[in-house]
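Action item from last meeting closed. Structure (237 res):
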């Protein structure tokens, strides 16, 4: 790939830089299937549900989207709801507790190909940012030893504080580009989720790279990716 046409790279985190998407998937599965079982629902939550309703979205949006697919309506509740509360926020917080427990126990290592690309971009002077729907981005980057690589992090907490809608809206990516002082057409979006590549396309970014970690190459292309890779090392100059 010729990086001379671009001044910045805007990375999603889970599934693009770190394999924490796997941790998220296990945490979502444990939470949703436990909840469905408590309601006597026979049809289980599956990985297909993750990619269709949850992947890349802010946590509470993911809860709301999946429950709607099962025709389940819950009160919204409040962000301070405990994990035992049967509300959208309560289920979201229950999932977050499960994720943090796995992260603390097992830690996380970045994909080697992603680190190689970060090294090359640093040598080129290309600006970088993390744009993640997760509210755990700083903790994940710290655990992976990469927190110092990213001067700009726009995660779920930043989006909430600024009132930015989450992916598939492009606002979080546009905010990161603005913080870096780069026009969207001079920035590359790197995403593994349908909602993420949709956001990149909606923001009219210079290039939208889909990273296929399970969503499917054709599906990522259909949702807005310009090109799809299976590992970021494929983007080395």
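Sequence:
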């Amino acid at each position: 790939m010729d990086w001379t046409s671009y001044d910045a790279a805007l990375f999603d985190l889970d599934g693009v830089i770190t394999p924490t998407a796997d941790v998220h998937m296990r945490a979502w599965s444990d939470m949703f299937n436990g909840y469905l079982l408590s309601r006597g629902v026979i049809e289980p939550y599956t990985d297909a549900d993750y990619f269709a309703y949850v992947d890349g979205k802010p946590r509470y949006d993911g809860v709301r989207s999946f429950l709607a697919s099962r025709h389940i309506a819950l009160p919204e509740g409040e962000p301070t709801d405990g994990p035992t509360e049967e509300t959208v926020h309560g289920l979201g917080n229950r999932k977050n507790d499960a994720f943090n427990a796995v992260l603390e126990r097992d830690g996380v290592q970045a994909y080697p190909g992603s680190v190689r690309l970060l090294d090359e971009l640093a040598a080129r002077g290309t600006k970088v940012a993390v744009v993640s729907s997760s509210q755990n981005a700083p903790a994940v980057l710290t655990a992976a030893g990469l927190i110092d690589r990213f001067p700009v992090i726009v995660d779920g907490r930043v989006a909430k504080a600024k009132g930015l809608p989450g992916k598939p809206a492009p606002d979080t990516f546009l905010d990161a580009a603005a913080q870096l002082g780069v026009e969207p057409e001079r920035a590359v979006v790197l995403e593994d989720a349908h909602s993420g590549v949709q956001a990149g396309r909606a923001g009219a970014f210079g290039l939208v790279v889909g990273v296929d970690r399970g969503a499917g190459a054709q599906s990522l292309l259909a949702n807005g990716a310009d090109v799809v890779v299976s590992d970021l090392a494929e983007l080395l100059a």
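Note appended to the action item: Strands lie at 8-11, 127-131, 152-154, 187-191, 207-211, 227-229.
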